[in-house]
Amino acid sequence: MNSNYEDFIKQYPTYQTTAHIDELRAEEYSRLDRANLIYLDYTGGGLYAASQVKAHQHFLLENTFGNPHSSNPPSLAATKLVESARSYILKYFNADPNEYSVIFSANASGALKIIGESYPFEPGDHYALIFDNHNSVNGIREFARNKGADVTYIPLTLPDMRVDQAALESAWNKAQPGANNLFAYPAQSNFSSVKHPLDWIEGAHTKGWDVLLDAAAFAPTNWLDLSQYKPDFVVFSFYKIFGYPTGLGALVARREALSRLQRPWFAGGTITVASVQGDNYYLAEDYAAFEDGTVDYLNIPALEIGLKHIESIGIESIQERVHCLTGWLLDNLTAMKHSSGVPLVRVYGPITTEARGGAVTVNFFNAKDQPIDHRFIEEAANKVNISLRTGCFCNPGAGEVALEISREELDVCFNKPGHENRLTLDDFRVCIDGKSSGAVRISVGTVTNYDDIQFFLRFAEGLLD
Ligand SMILES: Cc1ncc(COP(=O)(O)O)c(C=O)c1O
After folding, report:
1. CB atoms within 10 A of CB 100
2. pLDDT over 90 at 434, yes or no
3. How far is CA 235 from CA 78, 105, 186, 296, 437, in A?
4. Which of 109, 138, 234, 390 most suits a substitution to test ligand 1, by most atoms within 8 Å of the C-beta?
5. Active site annotation includes 394
6. What is the DSSP letter of 252?
7. Does a cis peptide bond (omega within 30 degrees of 0) precede residue 396?
8. What pTM value is reported for the model?
9. Nearest to 203 by CA among 168, 234, 233, 179
10. How do residues 222-281 score in pLDDT, each as one tens digit?
């Protein structure tokens, strides 16, 4: 690796337009450099600025908040802040409050479960999704199947791990007119970082599908404009966008689509009236019907602080910085070769910055072109204070395509005696003997800098023969 900062800037001059993020990192994220921590797991979780925590703490220390289901002054104070956060989220995504509603959940998975259990699937209905989905989107297929709906998976093509438009159209053409058809995909893959086109939303609508957009990996470094793109349901987790607090996500839903969902139960907070002797209940209107029990009213005010923090940095600056650093990482990593000529890494997904985000997923290979176990890479990285993620990142469809694990191999494994009800990850590794069961994901985010990437590249260089 004979490159330096001047080469980097020559290749990615727009990095300099993000210099304010270096200042911000020095002031607000100094804990990273104090601990010499090279944090490269932003797709796993974003990092918070010190000022976010201080502002939230001040808020809690200076006020008294009570359960919003009561009507006393501390309760009303909490209600005001929860409603203010709800409005701010819509404003952040440029969503018309007459068109969209915000439902608070524990995380993106919680928001997805609301859709899964409430979408009115029936025999003749359809759930279509691409291979490249998080397990919490895959899991909705169990609700669909249990209610008799068909499930269709749309494959990915190698090497870029994108979706072939013809395959997509053919799945969309399966929608029965007038039936309930739900199409789900991630705006950005948490495995390959491919950005799947947002104009699929309009395309699927035209063919009679409701659209569920998983924005969990996309929202932290890209802006989603809900006045331009109009999915029926959008989900995300806030800690991935600005690090603090954990334990909160949201379902942003078109009010019209929300009105077609059917909740399978009622809970405290979701009804106007419920009766024991009368054995009846009436669901509340709009978002209230979907928020079970008491919302996280002490943490919800921290969401507005977090969103304002991102706005003060500028999501375009974050996106630009991530673009430059990802490009540099890809350029240098893919150029590394053993003396035998064997490339050090195989990248799963695009190797240019075109329509992709800031996660680079790879496996490392030795000079004989044999894969190096991803667990070994993680252990080696941990020893030098580099934080990355290994495994399949809860995205088995993308993992199976990337690692070329076939349907037949999986069938043999799952049908093997002893594997009827229980299969550990170690059993699974034995099943697909000789192949990697996971990969290494290096993900870049809001306050990653050039030095972080250089440190990682030097670490990678140390794996050459
Ligand atoms: C694309 C994507 N969707 C959904 C999720 C689920 O998020 P959570 O674990 O916060 O529920 C993740 C988490 O990694 C993700 O990357």
Report:
1. 24
2. no
3. 24, 10, 10, 17, 28
4. 109
5. yes
6. E
7. no
8. 0.97
9. 168
10. 999 999 999 999 999 999 999 999 999 999 999 999 999 999 999 999 999 999 999 999
